[in-house]
Amino acid sequence: MSSCFLKVKNLRKSYGLVHVLDGMNFQMEPKERIVVIGPSGSGKSTLLRCIMGLEKIDNGRIEFEGARYIEARESRRKDNLVDTTVRAKVGMVFQHYTLFPHLTVLGNLVLAPVRARGENRASATDRAMQLLKRLGLENRANDYPGMLSGGQKQRVAIARALLLDPKIMLFDEVTSALDPELVAEVEGLMLELAEQKMSMMIVTHDMWFAKRIATRVIFCADGHIVEDAPPAKIFSDPTEPRTADFLKKVLHVDTIS
Amino acid sequence: MNGYSWDSSVVLSSLPQLMSGLAVTLQLTAICAVIGLVGGFVVCLMAMSRILPLRWIAVFFIELFRCTPALVQIIWIFYCVPIFFGIFIDPFTMAVLALGMNITAFNAEAYRAAIQAIPSSHYDACTALGLSSLKRTVYVILPQAVLLAIPVLLTNTIGLLQQTALVAIVAIGDLMYQGKSLATQTYRPIEIYSTVAFIYFIFSLPLSQVVGFCEKRLRARLT
Fold it and tell me: Are A146 and B144 within 8 A, CB to CB?
């Protein structure tokens, strides 16, 4: 077994007759920031959800740091192995924040460290407050999520995932539900994480942000990886005509500079 | 008022007896409300359980009490249970049993609707955070469901207060029963029943105000 950071091998996932992921293969090195782009229905979000272990895969295997993480074989459809110790190293943030409304910001942050990891409450609270301070949200610690703006909610959601010390963070369209003027604060936080060399996989429709944060861009269509290249290459001189066509549509211009 | 001469002295002189009836009504309401809050929660968990027989029992129970009139349930429990099962208990306990099971069924539905209103993305978030399904249920799903269910639970409780009037038919000395007997004793049903209605209203109104207040507060918090 090779010891690469994240390895997705022949990943298949279908909903009924629709093959959302039709045999996907790629590898990722630590500290890479892969942005996944593509038309809707191309399987971008499903890919992230599979890596998080939220979807049962039909076939294929995902390895993380050389360890078997998720595996399924077509012949034994129900046999879906997910190693939860490996999953604990993966963090994910969703489009709709998914903060728990009955808990305060601090309650949301310490829930998993205390209840899932068995950390004592004092030390989890301490770490949570430090993190909130870094994000400039320490004065919202005792507020309920309903009292926060969308941008603040999403930053709290990111903090909640970070508090579990993930080795890789998955971002599934985390700015899509935000008002335009609130996008910057969330993207700013992600750029900060990039500076700290966090490994990330990001699904986004914001091509400018993709170009700025990515070390690598994967263009998906119909459950396949069509093109996999550095952002400078893919945005200015895409190899595949399908990539060029997609970028032209979303950007209304030929390239972005 | 169509020449009817309203006699306030009847109202005043019957107040002590009506108050003793009110005490029974409130007692009945309070006991059944507690049974309903706890029992409804348990039956709801059973109805959503993965263990099929448990689920069948719970669903049968819920549908039985939702699909028959409360009045019929009370009469049936009073007259048929002793004959079928040879169980003889005091009337007040019988009334608690009947009304308690009725509200339990409706509250179970309220809890179930609240649990189903929690978006599936919260289940995903729990998985991503590494919470087991038991911990997810205990710390994320149920606390939210209880909060979401509060307005409906309170509405059901107001309904319960009104429904206790049905036990008068099996001779339990509640407010309605005392009213009925005073009406026949005094030949003044208009005064008596108006007073009875007013008393029910006075005790239900604050509860329904509380429902409105809770709904507003919860909407602000849970969105």
Answer: no
In angstroms, the CA A191 to CA A212 distance is: 8
CA distances from A167 to A92, A125, A225, B43 (A): 11, 21, 24, 42
Kindly give, in sequence order, each residue whose CB lies less than 8 Å from that of residue A109, ignoring residues fewer than 6 positions away: A124, A128, A131, A132, A156, A159, A160, A163
For B167-221, what is each residue's pLDDT tens digit? 998 888 999 999 999 999 999 999 999 999 999 999 999 988 988 888 888 877 7
Tell me the fold of A6-102+144-251: Rossmann fold (3.40.50)
Those residues with Cβ within 8 angstroms of residue B54's Cβ, 6 or more apart along the chain or in another chain: B46
Rounded to a whole number of angstroms, the distance between the first and last alpha carbons of chain A is 41
> Is residue A104 packed enough to be buried (19+ CB in 10 Å), middle (13-18) or exposed (0-12)?
middle
Query: pLDDT digits over B58-116, tens only?
Result: 999 999 999 999 999 999 998 888 888 888 888 899 999 999 999 999 999 999 999 99
Q: What is the ipTM of this complex?
A: 0.90
Interface touch A54/B128, C-beta < 8 Å: yes
A78: tokens are: 């129900």
CA of B77: how far to CAs of A145, B6, B54, B86, B169, in Å? Answer: 48, 39, 23, 12, 13
Rounded Cα distance, A49 and A95, in Å = 12
- Chain B positions touching A111 (Cβ under 8 A) are 129, 131, 139-140
**Domains of chain B: residue spans and CATH:** 14-222 (1.10.3720.10)
Does A68 score more than 90 pLDDT? no
Q: Which of B82, B70, B138, B144 is nearest to B113 (CA)?
A: B144
| pLDDT of residue A254 exceeding 60 | no
